Amino acid sequence: MKNKKSEPSSVKARINLLFILKVFLFTLLGTAFLITAISMIFYMTVARTLPDVGDLQTKASQFQTTKILDREGNLLYEIIDPNAGRRNYVSISDISPFVVAATIATEDKDFYNHPGFDMIAIVRAVIQNLQSGKTISGASTITQQLARNLLLTAEERSQRTIERKIKEIFLAAEITRRYTKDQILELYLNENYYSNFAYGIEAAAKTYFGIPSKYLDFAQSAFLAGLPQAPSVYDIFSNREKTLLRHRTVLLLTYSLSQETDCIKVGNSENPICVDELMVDRGIKEIEDYDFEQVTFPIKYPHWVNYIRTILEEMVGPQDLFRSGLTIYTSLDPAIQDTAQETISKQLAQLSGNNVHNGALVAIEPQSGEILAMVGSPDFYDTENAGQVNMATSPRQPGSVIKPLIYASAFEKGWTPATLLWDVPTEFSPTGIEADLQHAAPYVPQNYDNKFHGPVLLRDALGNSYNIPAIKALEFVGIYDNPATMENNGFMEFAERIGLTSLVKPGYGLSIALGGGEVTLLEMTQAFNLLANNGKSVPLKPILKIYNSRDELIYEPTSSPDNQQPLRAEYAYQITSILSDNNARTPMFGSNSVLNLPFPAAVKTGTTNDFRDNLTIGYTPDLTTGVWFGNADYTPMIETTGLTGAAPAWSTFMQTVVPILTGNNPGSFSVPAGLTEITICSVSGGYPSNYCPGTRNEIFAADQPPIPPEQDLWQYIPINTWNGKIANQFCPNSVKTMMTINVKDPWAQRWILSTSEGINWAKSMNLAPSDQPILFTPSESCEQGESEPLIQFVNLSDNTELKSPMTEIYAVVNDPAGIRNFSLEFGSGWEPEEWYVIASYPNRSVIQPEKIGDWNLTGLENGPYTLRIFVESSSGHYSEQRIHVMVNVEQDPHGNEEILVPVYGDQSQIPQFIQIP
Questions:
Q1: What is the phi-psi region of residue 686: left when phi exceeds 0, alpha when psi lies from -120 to 50, beta otherwise?
Q2: Is the pLDDT of residue 28 over 80?
């Protein structure tokens, strides 16, 4: 019965399940139909706007000349029709199969399998872009690249939108439908730009290797396949290391694809391309050892033109420059550029005996950010000295020119131009990569003049480019962000904020304060330009306008927003004030150096270790200029510094160009609001006091005045002599008011205590009184419950008259922390200058009253005396208890004046202080 009753419910359940399945299937089909319909409508809508994918080879032959001009409209370079020059169209059968394999492995490894686009790669790119918040991956196949280059307008190609991407996909699909894979690849290889004016694979093979493309081997093919991605970057003549690294990358990509697919099948060869590790190793060595022959082209200012091409490739794509018909007005001033090149060449001739073969210069108009001149090398075609390497854009060590930026970051943390720094022998703990090494030696820097200059204010430290204070400034700021505070507050954050993006290597140490990192001259000059603009960030504007082939303006740089102020105006001006202060730098550079111009100018020199780089960067309100001299291959110069190498060229250039720019009326630096001039002590940087030997004026931000009196160098304060702390109500005994030196730098303390220079300085500053030893201001004050010794005369008190020739003295002397020694002493008068020991007790305490000595008064003149119990603590501090007594002993009536001397032992002075924490 039970089974029969359950049958209807079982049938009902099956019916419900069938109903649900039918609904699900109808819904699924309906959704699929709807998606298909929407897709068809969308495709038809977009398709109406798509160009014809007909004769692509005809479209490939179309070319519109692109012109690069200076700011006055003079032609610098014209990208002419490559068909008239070094471009030969070749069929796929006449191209080396290695080229096809390397190109596919590098650009589109699924080329032969997808319908013109790679949906998996597109999804992956979307995810990567969403995660990064910016476009880092485009996922464009070879066919999509061909569609973009041949079928989209220049304006469309410059856009990075979803609509453009969809058009690319549809066009790629249509091209794949109409053309074979080999035809697509043939068009692609003939359209690519391979740098150095080589358009198409045939021209590239002849330009770099002097052979037709069909004879290219594996190493050569991989080299060429890596160039089209960024032709201006991957230039073997001007950027050898990056180009060789790109070559290695292509070799490895081809090797990986060969391993994944069991050799690479290509359409123009019956045999697949099989790559093993030996081929990769041989390929690397072959290209590294290959002697590429430099090709010359008639270009005016070639380094500038290549710099502009690099920017244009980022803006419109490397393959668009020879088909878009653009007219580009650049910021270059031809007269200033000629002056710059002449200046560099003349100074290089002056340095010919110092093994100096290269120089560079960058000049920027401060308010606009326009680059007026750029010299990358004296001779672009000097292959012996790597003339094609643009040293204005190549990372090099900046030397001391980075110091103003170090100090500017210290201003953000409270320092001022009057901050007292100690240029004394200092050992710094290993930092950066060295900190990870076992038994790494301390970092012990020296100054350029191999001298130490003791206490210096920040203005003088920067003006004279002293090394040790600069390193202490970086140590104060910190190199990297502080994980404990989760704040971006290290110097590297500051450097990135002001535009020094080349400082990207991990593990920088304190030596970066002396220019230990690598940064380009262009970036350093731009950073100084920020100082010239009182801390306002002004983006570089090397391109002023771009017109399309219809003479329509399609690009013009926007003005810099007023709120882009990465550095406070007060701090920037304080740095400017120091760098333009000839008096501040006179001790090191002399009063009439080449840095001293006949108009206001801020300037800093820099020299790296072994004289491998020397720089001078400086500015007026009207021009910022950076100059570099050295060798592209890093070989050292001979005794050539920033002052003797780069500075004369900088001085000549500035004195020539600034009057021209200003109509012989150079401007003065504008003082921002929020600054005030205050009279300070020229020694300590604090407010003037009775102790200070001299004063001068200094400029301060309103919210960062000089240090208050309680932080000044001279501190005449009550000290608890028993614990070495600042005395207060918690330690009323054992107190003595003493002159102390407010110095926290342990290396400065060592210099003051242990060197003749330091001791003499302390004496000259009245910091070492004759009645006390040198004492540093304690960092702690007495706290509640502070222990003090019990020192008490038991049987004597002040003003006791002593008539007996022998006086017994009872006392209590005790401290819970222990006593190293105590002594009973006397001296003549109420304030004795000399003390004589009656008795001494090492390592002893007197808890209960007991006799600690017999004072024999025989032979002493009657009069006032002082008794004291002098106690030394286990930590080296001291305390004492004094009483005044009158000696009035009757004379021997028989005239016996025998004197028992010495009775009391040797004369004793107050023990020397140890350093008080």
A1: beta
A2: no
